[in-house]
Amino acid sequence: MKDKVVVLFSGGMDSATLLYHFMDIGKDVHALGINYGQRHIKELIAASEITQKLGVPYEIVDLRSITKLINTSSLVNQNIPVPEGHYEETSMKITVVPNRNMILLSIAAAWAIALKAEGIGYAAHAGDHAIYADCRPEFIKAISNAIFLADDHKIKLFTPFQDFSKADICLLGNKLNVPFSLTWSCYKGEQKHCGKCGTCVERKEAFHLAKVKDPSSYDSE
Questions:
Q1: What does the DSSP 8-state code read for residue 126?
Q2: Residue 120 and residue 6 in contact, taking contact as beta carbons nearer than 8 Å
Q3: Is the pTM of this model over 0.85?
Q4: Which of 59, 75, 132, 156 is the most buried (most CB within 10 A)?
């Protein structure tokens, strides 16, 4: 029997690479998407397409009822413009969704416990640290311990990309044949990647630094 792993799967290039990584090392992967009212809901459509392609079980949890409680972020509040520029600029802090990753990981832990899984896969990487406190090593260490203590069936939190750059993830994904053309990053969630928001800039930069062909279409080009 393969060990089960629940992968938090947004449909972006990081979590897609993580999903392919766990499949590559022989895990029984179950993918979890969360609808928390994000304006870039296209990421969940991307996740659905990728999991269907792979034949991986994929569940979407609907948390839209909490959107009004966390609407200080441009990712869930349509009245707040999505900032443009580099990912590390302080303007990107308006994209922070209050306590998002703790909420998502809590739900993933519940499913992992119910499945009697080995653990949860979480694609936090070093490039997230500047803006997102819930991607930093201190948070990962604390939430990992809390998840482990949450039930008599002990769940591990796997964060293999914790020290990776986005370019490192791109290189690994390319090696694993991740269909990057199907992944979605843009926070604006329009027909194409805008090419200007922080996550688009970071995506383009990762492909450039990794020397991997970027299959994405951008409105800015």
A1: G
A2: yes
A3: yes
A4: 75
